[in-house]
Amino acid sequence: MTRTTADRSAVRTLLRLWPYVRPVRARLFTAAAVAVVASCIGLVIPLVLKWLVDGPVAGHDPAGVWLGALCLLLLGIAEAVLFGIRRWLVARPLSHVEAEMRAGLYRRLQRLPVAFHDRWASGQLLSRGTTDLMLLRMFLAFPLTFLLVNGVTILVGVIIMLVQDWRLGLVILGPAVPVMWTCAVFERRYAQVARRAQDQVGDLTTVVEESVLGIRVVKGFGRHRSQARAFRELAGRLRGTELRKARLLATIWGVIVALPELAIGAALVLGTVRVADGELSAGTLVAFLSTALALRWPVDSIGFLLAMTQEAATATERYFEVMDEAPEDAGEESGEGTAPGAGVVGASGAHPESGGRPTPVPGSGPAAGGRPAPGSRPAAGARPAPAPGSRPVAGARPAPVLGSGPVAGARPVPVPESGPVAGARPVPVPGSLPAPRAEVCAGDGIRFEGVRFRYPDAAPGSPPLLDGVDLHIRAGESMALVGATGSGKTTLTALVPRLYEVTSGRITLNGVDITGIPREELRSRVAVAFEEPTLFSATVGENVLMGAPDGAGKPELDRALAIARADFAHALPQGTDTRVGEQGLSLSGGQRQRLALARAVVGRPEFLVLDDPLSALDVHTEAAVEAALRQVLADTTALIVAHRPSTVLLADRVALLSGGRIAAVGTHRQLLRDNAEYAHLMSGEREESR
């Protein structure tokens, strides 16, 4: 992700900001014009001084002196007012530009595939959305304008000085060549150091975030000293980089300040001699030196303006490294701002079994191929609570099209408290929630046909994690998926809602290839609950209803909580309106898992994928949840990752995943009798050979 900046053109990089700046270009151009006028007014002051010295002062005219003083005062006030107007013109539009860029980055992060989030450290993404965008706003507000303003000011000032006395003007221009050479060298070196510093800020942010989210582990194992040591090491590297930046700035500032000052000193001596010889008037010398002094600020500011420009170019480069990534719905018709994972409930920081995928070293940045540490952030695919004023999160099932036949997943509305009326198939009311099915819709269920999968960051030539998986889950059937740890069970379940793309082969839902189904529709039909659930900093009700279509309310919430045996939610201080806090850590593991299960079933999904959903429950709660789940599974097509016989018994059939393939399919009793590997996994005996 971090690429060299040695040959990067800062101008070409910054030009990529134009689409964001274009809507406010009128105010920016006006602000620049106002600033140019203000700077040029400042250059008029030396000319007034020349008139004062050669006129009223030389002629002993008090009235003329007062007039000149009034002119100087008015010019100073005009300059100050114009600079104030410039600031007013840019403040609001640039805040809007920053907000739009931040919103665009967030939308893109939501639409990027899970494989992208596996590779990138969360701190690197956070720093791009905060520090980098702040640098861009500062650049657009100040350096962008004043690079133009100061350039015009220097040009006009030099012309004025050459007109007044070309010999003194050439003396002032003497340092121009060494100053420009110094700026060119500085720009190249500073760009590299600025990139390193901003990447190190991202690394430091990652360590802080992981330490805060994993504070229970840090304290539980007494690792606060080692975490503090890792933080100090990264902070020390960042400090060293910042000192390197300071040394570069000090060098260029020293050159830019010293050489012009020497030139001004030489012009003063030469001008004084010429005044004494009568070749130059005192007023001209005063005006010349005043103009030269007025140019000190534009010249002296070149160093830090170039520094801020390079930092902005680096920030732009880092920003577009994310924005240039292809979203997972590229080429599909999708509403703007639709988050990937709409309808995929329970997505968590738990990582699919990867078969030995590399892990990033803290402080090394988002190394390609590395997967983020567990708990570092909510995994893509989980839907966060919608922001106020945002568009509804996708997840509602599409209404049936007239003449197209029954829509998969459409369910009849039963008579309340009485179940479905025999033989009646009422038409769903537009905008209403789908009700439980009286019978499973005819279809082919879920089919895996020759599915092969290798993680995008796997080593070249490494064997695929899944190699030729063939499995058919009939419509209305529940299939348990059993296999050893690391066999790829979680990965296989993640392929159904297209959190990952198959390497080869295909998966079909009711005979339709999932690659031909828009992700929004696919994830409205497939609900997923992972083993380690992620809850958001929202209320219990909001967390559960993330898995429901738009318009779901208390009845659907209460039904889902009852199925998941999450009635504890009603006993919380504010009931289902209680906020669970970040990651839901105010709840126990079993409570979080039951809420994630409720989120998976609240939308009455047509297809249900459960990744060991009862692993954190005690025996009695597990039995109660299983009893309720059997009713749900009777009306859906389900794939359940199971590690315990009690979970396996929820399913109609069992598939054994071994060696990247489906080794056996049958009922629990059949496999116990006929398959030694399955019997071994279910026995709970220690695997000595693994």
From TrEMBL:
Cited PROSITE patterns: ABC_TM1F, ABC_TRANSPORTER_1, ABC_TRANSPORTER_2
Biased composition (Low complexity): 362-412
Annotated TM spans: 28-53, 65-85, 138-162, 168-186, 248-270
Membrane disposition: Multi-pass membrane protein
InterPro entries: AAA+_ATPase, ABC1_TM_dom, ABC1_TM_sf, ABC_transporter-like_ATP-bd, ABC_transporter-like_CS, P-loop_NTPase, Type_1_exporter
Keywords linked to the UniProt accession: ATP-binding, Membrane, Nucleotide-binding, Transmembrane, Transmembrane helix
Domain ABC transmembrane type-1: from-to ranges: 29-311
Domain of life: Bacteria
Annotated segments matching region Disordered: 326-431
Gene3D superfamilies linked: ABC transporter type 1, transmembrane domain (1.20.1560.10), P-loop containing nucleotide triphosphate hydrolases (3.40.50.300)
Comp. bias intervals (Acidic residues): 326-335
Localization terms from the record: Cell membrane
CDD domains linked: ABC_6TM_Rv0194_D1_like
Residues of the ABC transporter domain: 446-684
Pfam families, A to Z: ABC_membrane, ABC_tran
This protein's name: ABC transporter transmembrane domain-containing protein
